[in-house]
Design goal:
This protein has 131 residues and is mostly helical. 72% of the residues lie in helices and 0% in strands. The protein has six helices and no strands. The longest helix is centred in the last third of the chain and has 24 residues. It has one domain. The chain starts with a helix and ends in a 5-residue tail after the last helix.
Length: 131
């Protein structure tokens, strides 16, 4: 029984359910009354989401530069890379209120979603048994 429950409550599944729930809630809610990308919470969400996506770059750097071994092992950074690759874009979606704005921000949002989506497809659909 315990093994069956641990499969259902695996960290990746819990994160997936939480992210899907947040996306559905954020998309269906009218958050533009509370969050605007130009100021306040919306602006902070953009800074936090962008910073998390910059932290993603530590993984490929750590993988190639052995001088950074003091930062932790490659598997640790790969797991953090996957987690931040989902949470960072999710926060940016809330920053953008799940809608498009100016042309420059539209291009950035679509590119971010394509990269994040390709990572999810590659990791969980194409190579699901990759460790």
């Amino acid at each position: 029984m315990k093994a069956a429950l641990s499969g259902w409550f695996a960290p990746a599944r819990v994160v997936a359910v939480l992210c899907i729930t947040a996306i559905l809630w954020g998309y269906s809610s009218h958050l533009e009354r509370f969050i605007t990308p130009q100021r306040g919470l919306g602006y902070a969400l953009g800074i936090v989401g962008g910073s998390l996506m910059l932290l993603i770059l530590i993984y490929p750097t750590r993988k190639r530069l052995h001088a950074l071994a003091s930062l932790g092992g490659v598997p640790l950074w790969f797991n953090l890379h996957k987690l931040l690759g989902v949470i960072g874009p999710l926060i940016v979606l809330f920053h953008a209120n799940f809608s498009f704005g100016a042309t420059n921000s539209n291009v950035a949002l679509v590119c971010m979603l394509v990269v994040s989506g390709s990572g999810i497809v590659g990791r969980y659909i194409v190579w699901p048994d990759l460790r």
